[in-house]
Specification:
The complex is a heterodimer. By secondary structure, chain A is an alpha/beta fold. Helices cover 23% and strands 22% of the residues of chain A. Chain A contains ten helices and 15 strands. In chain A, the strands form two sheets. Chain A has a ten-stranded parallel β-sheet with strand order 6-7-8-9-10-11-12-13-14-15, covered by helices on one side. In chain A, strands 4-3-2-1-5 form a five-stranded antiparallel β-sheet, covered by helices on one side. The longest helix of chain A is centred in the N-terminal third of the chain and has 17 residues. Chain A is globular and about 65 Å long. In chain B, strands 10, 11, 12, 13, 14 and 15 form a six-stranded antiparallel β-sheet that branches. In chain B, α4 packs across α5 and α5 runs antiparallel to α6. Classes of the chains: A alpha/beta, B alpha+beta.
Chain lengths: 355, 368
């Protein structure tokens, strides 16, 4: 028995779901549109599990959650990962993926998230990925795949070892969304990349290797609407230049592209200056230059661009813009995210007994 | 019967003192008598002369006052402490500071006579002593790891562990001063350390500062230098357990226990390994986290057990980690001055007012 709830206010839009199976409760929660997080708790008896579920549901209802019966709102999502203590006990991602592929749920899953795996700083998820690639029939509904959903609490992002995805694209022709975290040992495709249905591609990493950038810039992705690239720093694997990003600034490279993110860059000002005059803006709804070192130089170039007005949203959060420039951005008629201003001051030392 | 008088030992210019006086006024009490740390340390004030039997005595943080810091260091055995330069954020001799602070607390306890306490000086010293806390509350804290005295010893240990991520913390400090989040990549031998410690190489050797910007070190030489500094001053090693996540950040909790119960609580969100709020991290109302009733029950139990371990203390600010894998909450540390959470209300009281009302309630019960 499954209950699915949603909650919406000005700040958040999230879901909460509880499923009971005998004496086990499986709770999933998170932002709508993500696979969310999962918590499984076991109770001594099915009655106790039932009671806890009722209590949880009443808590959620009090908080303003509304139960939804509309199944279309629900994606069948699954998250698989190996926590640090499971890794210490010798559990592996491959075991977990193997068991998952043999489960009945696999045939329904639309969204699959591979979270942490054992010793991610040392080995990639290749075997697990290959197992999926060899058995596409076991994942007939798969539309969304995220590999490497771990944060700095689990593995330093620049140390996450990735895999070779060449065969994934042919094995899953219906895949629509792919998110890869980590760029060490990442091979997106060893031959020209083509995929008919891919709508969204995100590479999140500490430094994006030049060959991955080139592979995307020369890819045939006729349905790509969303492209998010973390440029990063050379210390963590970025070995390109602004020239390597120029193809993405051309209108029509991906005819359906609506969102372009060139984020987390040390030369955000250069990117901003070039893209401010670029033809790709004519087709975009969202331009995302967030999380980098954007300061007033790049900000000025964007403000002076005649093409910015055609956007719906400009995301610049986490930046080094001055207060004056933030004000100018807020005057624009489009939605601009200029939150998370970084500290421009040099007073950063503090006395110890302050808290 | 004479009404009990409130007395506070603190640094009069500090905001903590103002918050306390404000809260007394709200509670309809007379302003507290303030005894500056400096006048005690200078010998200008003899506690037996100013304290009366039945006074209720509150000991505040001695922090953020360099003259007081120098006196405490001198009491701890540092020669020429008076000649130290006031450099904002410089970490001077944490081991000697703690020795001096312990002596000061002991002498206050001895001289105070027949007073009642907010927090007893002995408890304050115990809470500051992180290894002791761990020893006192083994079931609630992270498992103890070997006592280590140098970087080389630490590295030899770390290399042998399957899980090579650790926190190294000064044995007695607060405010994330002297903390390193360390990781070792066995595949390529790389190391990395995030730390609030900023190292400055001067002609006269290294100087260490508390930095609000978390520094990232990847050079072995620097990491060795900082860890050797911390181990020499006395530091302990703990496993780095992944913290629970809220949206895109990980978090831990600062929970204030007052009169044995959980009261004010706030989540401290961070995208890096350290969550302390003054490091520019976001606070987040605990309701947002949507913790289950059973998790709250576990947190309550943890707070109650911790407060029982300090029976002579009215309050403490507890740092609580919720492991990402859903296991039981863990006590990271107990802070005797951990109640500075301005504007955070619980049952319409801020922390100071809640503590004062708890004292008044204690007095009512005692005279009933």
């Amino acid at each position: 028995m499954k209950h699915y709830f949603e909650y919406q206010d000005s700040k958040s839009y999230k879901f909460w779901q509880v499923e009971i199976e005998a004496n086990t409760l499986n709770v999933k929660y998170g932002k709508i549109g993500t696979a969310g997080q999962e918590k499984i708790s076991s109770f001594d008896t099915p009655e106790k599990a039932q009671k806890e579920m009722e209590k949880l549901i009443s808590e959620k209802t009090k908080k303003g959650y509304v139960e939804k019966t509309d199944a279309s709102a629900k994606k069948v999502a699954r998250r698989i990962g190996v926590s640090y203590d499971e890794a210490e006990e010798g559990k592996t991602l491959l075991e977990k993926v193997t068991a998952f592929l043999d489960s009945a749920q696999a045939t329904e899953v639309e969204s699959l998230v591979i979270a942490a795996w054992e010793e991610a700083y040392d080995c990639g998820p290749q075997e697990s990925l290959d197992l999926m690639i060899a058995n596409p029939g076991k994942l007939p509904q798969l539309k969304e795949l995220f590999v490497g959903d771990m944060d700095s609490e689990e593995c330093e992002i620049s140390w996450i070892t990735q895999a070779d995805y060449t065969k994934l694209f042919a094995a899953f022709p219906s895949l629509e969304r792919l998110h890869i975290k980590g760029s060490k040992d990442l091979i997106l495709s060893s031959h020209p990349l083509t995929h008919e249905h891919l709508k969204a591609l995100t590479i999140e990493c500490g430094g994006l290797p030049k060959d991955v950038i080139e592979k995307i810039a020369t890819a045939q992705l006729p349905n790509l609407e969303y492209l998010q690239l973390y440029i990063g720093v050379d210390e963590y694997g970025f070995d390109g230049k602004i020239d390597d990003l120029r193809p993405f600034m051309q209108k029509g490279l991906f005819p359906k592209l609506k969102h372009l993110g060139l984020v987390d860059s040390e030369f955000a000002n250069e990117i901003a200056t070039e893209i401010a005059q670029a033809s790709v803006l004519e087709q975009l709804e969202t331009l995302d230059l967030s999380m980098g070192t954007l300061s007033d130089d790049g900000g000025r170039a964007l403000l002076e661009s005649s093409k910015i007005a055609g956007l719906k949203k400009l995301d610049l959060h986490y930046h080094y813009l001055s207060n004056d420039m933030i004000k100018e951005f807020k005057k624009l008629s489009i939605l601009v995210d200029v939150t998370d201003q970084q500290d421009l001051e040099d007073e950063w030392r503090y006395p110890a007994v302050t808290e | 019967m004479q009404k009990s008088r409130f007395v506070l030992i603190g640094n009069p210019e500090n905001r903590r003192v103002h918050f306390f006086q404000e809260a007394l006024q709200q509670a309809g009490q007379d302003a507290a008598l303030i005894i500056p740390y400096l006048s005690i340390l200078n010998g200008e004030c003899e506690l037996p002369d100013v304290l009366r039997d039945g006074d209720t005595l509150r000991i505040e943080s001695p922090g953020e006052n360099f003259a007081v810091e120098k006196k405490i260091l001198s009491l701890g055995g540092l020669e020429n402490a008076s000649g130290l330069e006031d450099e904002r954020g410089r970490i001077y001799h944490p081991r000697l500071w703690f020795q001096g602070f312990s002596k000061l607390m002991t002498s206050i306890a001895q001289q105070a006579g027949n007073v009642s306490w907010f927090n007893h000086p002995d408890d304050i010293v115990s809470m500051f002593n992180k290894p002791l806390c761990k020893y006192t509350l083994p079931a609630l804290t992270l498992p103890s790891l070997p006592v280590i005295s140098s970087y080389d010893e630490f590295f030899a240990y770390a290399e042998l562990q399957a899980y090579s991520r650790f926190f190294i913390k000064l044995n007695s400090s607060s405010s994330a001063s002297g903390i390193v989040a360390y990781e070792h990549n066995k595949r390529n031998g790389k190391e990395q350390a995030h730390s609030t410690v900023e190292i400055v190489h001067g002609l006269d050797g290294e100087r260490y500062y508390n930095s609000l910007k978390i520094k990232k070190y990847t050079a072995k030489k620097e990491i060795r230098n900082i860890l050797n500094f911390l181990f020499t001053e006395g530091a302990m090693v703990e496993s780095w357990i992944p913290k629970a996540k809220h949206e895109d950040s990980s978090y831990d909790l600062r929970v204030v226990g007052i009169a044995g119960q959980r009261r004010h609580a706030i989540a401290r969100l961070s995208r890096g390994p350290m969550t302390n709020l003054h490091l520019g991290n976001q606070r987040c109302a605990v309701d947002e986290l949507e913790l289950s009733t059973s998790t709250w029950q576990e947190i309550d139990t943890l707070v109650e057990k911790t407060m029982q371990a300090f029976p002579r203390s009215l309050y403490a600010g507890l740092d609580i980690l919720l492991p990402r894998n859903g296991k039981s909450p863990v006590l990271l540390e107990a802070n005797a001055f951990g109640d500075l959470l301005p504007n955070l209300l619980h049952n319409a009281e801020n922390t100071y007012l809640a503590e004062i009302n708890a004292v008044l309630e204690r007095q009512r019960l005692a005279y009933a």
